Each structure stands twice: as C-alpha cells, then as structure tokens.
C-alpha cells in the first residue's frame, strides 16, 4: 500500500506541518495503526478508507500520534484531502467521518483546501500553578477548551515572546489533557497575518506541533472577538511555520490552507 508524507498549511516543501497519509480499504486492528504511526514518527498520521455511497460521509478518517489516537486534527485532515484530490481519487467536497463528527474539505480554485470544523468553546480559567514557570513567560490570560479539543489557550504579551519561548516540556505535560497553545497579536499585521501561535503537546507525545489546524478552532473565535473580524490569518510555528486562514461561522470554523506532497512510497507491513 502507498504511504505519503504531506506538508500541510504551506505551499513549500519542508515547511508547514508534515503528516503521514495512508489510504486503506478498511481499518486494520488498532495495534497495527499505532505501530505505523510510531514508525512514521510525525505529530499525526492519518488513516482513511472509503465508505459506502449514500451515507453522511464519503471516507472514514482517524488520526494517530506516535503514542495515541486523537479526537481532532486539522493538518492531517488537510493532508488527506490533498492526497485524495491530487491523485484524482476525489473531487470537489469530501466528507469525512471522524471522532469529532462529520468534517468536510473542499478544493478551491486557487489550489487551497477549505475545511469545515466545529468551533471550540473557550472558558476563562485561572492561570494553572506552574504554567508561567514551565513557559518561562508571564501569562496574560488562559482559556480552557476541555469540552472540545482539550487544550489551554494562553495569551502572552507579544509576538516576540511567543517566538522566543523555550518551554520545559516535562513541566507542561501535566497541565492540560492535550496541549498548550500560546498566542499573541501580530506585531505587524501588514505582513499578512493577524495573530501568532505555537502549540506544545507533550501529553500526547509531541513536544511542539508546527502548525495545528485544530487549535485554530479555538484561536479563531478568540481573536475574532478581540479584533472584531470573522476572517483572520494565523501564523504558527517555531522552526517550521505555516499559515492558517480562518473564517468564523458560529458553531463552525472554516480553516483554509495549501498542502504539498513531499514523499511517496510503499508501506511493507
């Protein structure tokens, strides 16, 4: 069977967020999926198989980190949709059945893909004990997304602080059920983005995720409320970076970006 590595939320190889993509006839046992994800050793590997015609979705989709399965993943969904469209396996809008419900991915005329995800709720919470020490930075506010993606959204003073972070990943591991998303307003919005973020997920085996699509289902409502606009662009990453365009539509958030296949080969297992 074929396996591909796709860089998501970028149109340039070796940038954005890489994801493994494996298209199957059906899902094998969970242990095999986890072994493949561990072998690929990226933040997520997506596994998908076609569903019978006439249902609410066209493909079943699952995402696994090297250590566990996750409920929602944006960049690996984008990567999967890119593979389906670039290989001629699908066209137009693809509907995925996943743990978080039915998601859609639509190929746009400009070569991007727009995904429709549930908007994450944001609950203000007190700064958890040890968070500032783990980040090495003063925290302005913290919002919990436990009902949806299980991340803490943490606003810091400015873009420079976000970019310069060198967190204590072992200390961050126990502070959220999935991850810690740090964010700040863009210092220079004329550069093509409205806010910046970085995502740390040591609790699920990923110290830093370069460009986290699912996190933008929380970042979009957070910054849309602050900036007074429903359409925004987020810049995420440390060593690798990418752009996520967001459009807030109440209970749904649209995520848009490019993707590019960088590796394709055979999986012998």
From TrEMBL:
- Tell me yes or no: is Isomerase among this UniProt entry's keywords: yes
Q: Which InterPro entries match?
A: Phenazine_PhzF-like
Pfam families on file: PhzC-PhzF (PF02567)
What keywords tag this UniProt record?
Isomerase
Keyword set includes Isomerase: yes
Please name the PANTHER family in this protein's record.
PHENAZINE BIOSYNTHESIS PROTEIN, PHENAZINE BIOSYNTHESIS-LIKE DOMAIN-CONTAINING PROTEIN
The family annotation for this protein states: Belongs to the PhzF family.
What is the protein's name according to its record?
PhzF family phenazine biosynthesis protein
């Amino acid at each position: 069977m074929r396996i591909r590595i796709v860089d998501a939320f970028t149109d340039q190889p070796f940038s954005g967020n890489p994801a493994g993509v494996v298209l199957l006839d059906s899902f094998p046992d969970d242990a095999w999926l986890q072994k493949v994800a561990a072998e690929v050793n990226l933040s997520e590997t997506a596994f998908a198989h076609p569903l019978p015609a006439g249902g609410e979705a066209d493909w079943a989709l699952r995402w696994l980190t090297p250590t566990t399965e996750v409920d929602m993943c944006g960049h690996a969904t984008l990567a999967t949709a890119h593979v389906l469209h670039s290989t001629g396996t699908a066209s137009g809008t693809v509907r995925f059945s996943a743990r978080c419900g039915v998601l859609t991915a639509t190929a746009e005329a400009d070569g991007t893909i727009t995904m429709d995800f549930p908007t994450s709720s944001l609950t203000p919470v007190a700064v958890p004990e040890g968070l500032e020490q783990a980040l090495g930075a003063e925290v302005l506010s913290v919002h919990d997304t436990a009902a949806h993606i299980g991340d803490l959204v943490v606003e810091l003073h400015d873009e420079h602080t976000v970019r310069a972070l060198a967190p204590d990943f072992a200390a961050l591991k126990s502070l959220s059920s999935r991850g810690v998303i740090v964010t700040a307003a863009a210092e220079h919005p004329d550069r093509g983005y409205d806010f910046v973020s970085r995502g740390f997920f040591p609790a699920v085996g990923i110290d830093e995720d370069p460009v986290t699509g699912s996190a933008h289902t929380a970042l979009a409502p957070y910054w849309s409320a602050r900036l007074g606009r429903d359409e925004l662009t987020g810049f995420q990453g440390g060593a690798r970076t990418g752009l996520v365009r967001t459009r807030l539509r109440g209970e749904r958030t649209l995520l848009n970006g490019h993707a590019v296949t960088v590796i394709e080969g055979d999986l012998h297992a």
